[in-house]
Amino acid sequence: MLELISKVRRGGGDDSGSSLVAVLLVMLVLTIAGLALSSIVVNTAGFTASGRAQAESRAAADAGLAAVSAQLKKGEIACPTAPAKYVVSSPVAVSADAGSRGYTYAVSCTDTIATVRVNANVDGARTALQAEFGFSTSTSLGGDMVFFGTNSIDFNSNVEVTDPGRRVNIVVPEATAFNCNAKIPGNLTVKGNINTQSGCNVSGTVAAGGTLNMCCGSDTFQGDLTLRGTGSSVIRGTINGNILANGRLEFGWENKTIGGSVRTTGDVQLGSVRIQGSLTFPSGRTYTPNSGTVVGGVQRPASVESVPALTLPTWFEYAYKASDWPGYNVVTLVNSGSGVGSCNYFNSSPGTGWTTWLGSLAANTVVDARACTVLSSENGSVPVVQLKTNLVLLANSFNFGSITFRAAASAAGKPSMYVITEDRTPGDHKPTCGTGQSKLYINGTVVEPSVRAIGYTPCSVDVGSKGVDRWSGTLYGGAWSPGGKFTFTADPIGLPGMGAEHGISVETKTVGALQRQRDVTYASLESWTP
Question: Taking the mean position of all CA atoms in its chain, how far away is CA 66?
Answer without folding.
Answer: 25
